[in-house]
Amino acid sequence: MIGTLSMVATPIGNLGDISQRALDVLESVDVILCEDTRVTRKLLQHYEIDTQCMSYHQHSDDKKVREIAELLKQGKNMALVSDAGTPGISDPGNRLIADLSQMMPELQVFGIPGASAMTVALSVSGFPTDKFTFMGFIPHKNKRKKFLEEVRESKYTSCFFESCHRIEKCIKEMKEIFEGEREVVICRELTKKFETTYRGSITDIAAMDIPTKGEFVVVVRAK
After folding, report:
1. Which of 74, 134, 182, 203 is the most exposed place for a label (fewest CB within 10 A)?
2. Which of 163, 157, 170, 162 is nearest to 222 (CA)?
3. Could you give the domains of the chain?
4. Pick from 139, 140, 118, 142: which is nearest to 129 by CA?
């Protein structure tokens, strides 16, 4: 019998936002695959879990995938976590599942649900969410204009991530491309001590004093 792979959602800020099922899985598996082992160990130490950790991230190569596959073939049960939120959502977890499923079609993959910055931001936006578009991280350099033009033309509520280093630039670009009146919600530091939500037209948002610290999720109402 080959082992199993569980995709385990972890907190996006508040350590209380983890399920008992997630903790049980992290404690019971043989190996936890981590985006950053240092980040994951802090979570594990908080809950007194001493499961072995192994790195798996966007720069992991085919050799790492083969190593993971070999452990599964040995019957090792594994969990995959990202630094925060649901693995496979805007991170390489989906690629790992695709690779392993080709190598081992019989592999069982389980989803352990929990926190996701995308769904939290959508839930507090007040915008229609019966249909929405999640676009991951806005590009750092090239294709930013094209990305935001796609958001502008979307028929559905759009959601994407932006870093603290570029949020001011993003707001300025949105004001230019959206022509000032599109409704926007920007969520900063979701679930954390300084969680803040900014609402209004992009013109209103551009006039606000938004600290350039923390993690940002941007939600844009369809035209």
Report:
1. 74
2. 157
3. 5-112 (3.40.1010.10), 117-220 (3.30.950.10)
4. 118
Q: Three-state secondary structure along 140-193?
A: CCCCHHHHHHHHHHCCCEEEEEECCCCHHHHHHHHHHHHCCCCEEEEEECCCCC
162: nearest Cα among 108, 198, 214: 214
pTM for this one?
0.92
The single-letter code of the amino acid at 104 is M
Question: 16: buried, middle or exposed (CB in 10 Å: 19+, 13-18, 0-12)?
Answer: exposed
CB atoms inside a 10 Å sphere around CB 170? 19
